[in-house]
Structure formats: structure tokens, C-alpha cells
């Protein structure tokens, strides 16, 4: 596990510079610049809302109070990240990897999390209300005070999770593997 106290902290100007390079990378079809990589960096209070962050790396990052509302995070990697007080409402998180991450007080309401992977993650007071978790894998996770109310879980796989005060009320669809806790 990463010692987040030793991560390089990026100010908002540094984040904007990296994002500008990412835009050039995407526009040039990878011929110019480079893909954004925030791995093992600390970022606080940045607004990533409505940005195209397809494939951006946040591995082992410490993200606090960041906004990702309606952002495109398709195929992004948050593996081993520590995320606190983040708002992802409405974001496109298809095939995102959240394995080994620590997610506290995060809102994923209304997100598209189709085929997302949560393996050995710690989720505390996270909300997935009305999120699309179709085909997602949630395995070996610690779920404390998580709200999955109204989420769509068609084809999702739930295995070996430890759940405390977690709500599955109104969940819709059939799981591919596992069963909803009662």
C-alpha cells in the first residue's frame, strides 16, 4: 500500500498543464504529447467535471475533495488510489479499475460503471444510487455504509465482500455471480 504522505502534491496549475498535454495527445491520436498520468500524485480540490479523461491514470494517487461530475473516465485506472470526498455523479466510468483503492465519502450516483472492477477495495460511506453496475465485478471488498439503492446490476459479479450497514434497496437486475446480502 502506498504511503500517501510521501506523494508529490500537484497544484492546480500543474494539473491543468498535464491535462492540456492529454488533450493534445487525444486530438493527435497519440502522435503528439502524452496521456495524462496522475499516478502517485496528491491532488486536492480540483474540478475535473465535464472533462474527457479517457484512459487517464490515477494509480496510487491521493485525491481529496475533487469533482468528477459528468467526466468521461472510460478505461481509467484508480488502482490503489486513496479518494476522499469526491463527487463522480453522472460520470462515465465504463471499465474503470478501482482495485485496491480506498474510497471514503464518494458519490457515484447515476454513474455508468458498466464492467468496472472493484477488487479488494475499501468503500466507506459511498453512494451508488441509480448507478449502472451492469457487468461490474465487486469482489473481496469492504463495504461500510455504502448505498446501492436503485442501482442496475445486470450481469454483475459480487463475491466475498464484507458488508456492514450497506443498503441494496431497490437494486434492479440479475447478478451473473453471487447474491445480494439480505
State the strand order across the main sheet.
Answer: 1-2-3-4-5-7-9-11
Average the pLDDT over all residues and give the rounded result.
93
Report the radius of gyration as a whole number of Å: 16 Å
Proportion of β residues?
15-25%
The rounded distance between the terminal residues' Cα atoms is 32 Å
Protein described:
There is one protein chain. By secondary structure, this protein is mainly beta. The protein has one domain (1-182): Pectate Lyase C-like, CATH 2.160.20. Helix content is 9%, strand content 18%. It has 1 helix and 11 strands; from the N terminus they run βαββββββββββ. It has one helix spanning 12-27; strands at residues 8-9, 41-44, 62-64, 82-84, 102-104, 117-119, 122-124, 137-139, 142-144, 157-159, 162-164. The strands form 2 sheets. Strands 1-2-3-4-5-7-9-11 form an 8-stranded parallel beta sheet, with no helix packed on it. The chain has a 3-stranded parallel beta sheet with strand order 6-8-10, with no helix packed on it. α1 links the parallel β1 (8-9) and β2 (41-44). The protein is globular, with a radius of gyration of 16 Å. It starts with 7 loop residues before the first strand and ends in an 18-residue tail after the last strand.
Amino acid at each position: 500500500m502506498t504511503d500517501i504522505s510521501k506523494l508529490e502534491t500537484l497544484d492546480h496549475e500543474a494539473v491543468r498543464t498535464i491535462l492540456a498535454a492529454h488533450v493534445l495527445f487525444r486530438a493527435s491520436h497519440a502522435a503528439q504529447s502524452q496521456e495524462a498520468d496522475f499516478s502517485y500524485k496528491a491532488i486536492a480540490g480540483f474540478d475535473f467535471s465535464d472533462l474527457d479523461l479517457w484512459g487517464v491514470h490515477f494509480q496510487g494517487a491521493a485525491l481529496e475533495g475533487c469533482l468528477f461530475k459528468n467526466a468521461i473516465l472510460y478505461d481509467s485506472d484508480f488502482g490503489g488510489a486513496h479518494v476522499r470526498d469526491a463527487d463522480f455523479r453522472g460520470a462515465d466510468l465504463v471499465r474503470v479499475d478501482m482495485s485496491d483503492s480506498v474510497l471514503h465519502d464518494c458519490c457515484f450516483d447515476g454513474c455508468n460503471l458498466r464492467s468496472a472492477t472493484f477488487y479488494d477495495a475499501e468503500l466507506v460511506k459511498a453512494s451508488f444510487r441509480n448507478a449502472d453496475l451492469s457487468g461490474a465485478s465487486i469482489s473481496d471488498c469492504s463495504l461500510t455504509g455504502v448505498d446501492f439503492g436503485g442501482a442496475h446490476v445486470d450481469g454483475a459479479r459480487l463475491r466475498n465482500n464484507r458488508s456492514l450497514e450497506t443498503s441494496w434497496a431497490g437494486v434492479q437486475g440479475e447478478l451473473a455471480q453471487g447474491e445480494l446480502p439480505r
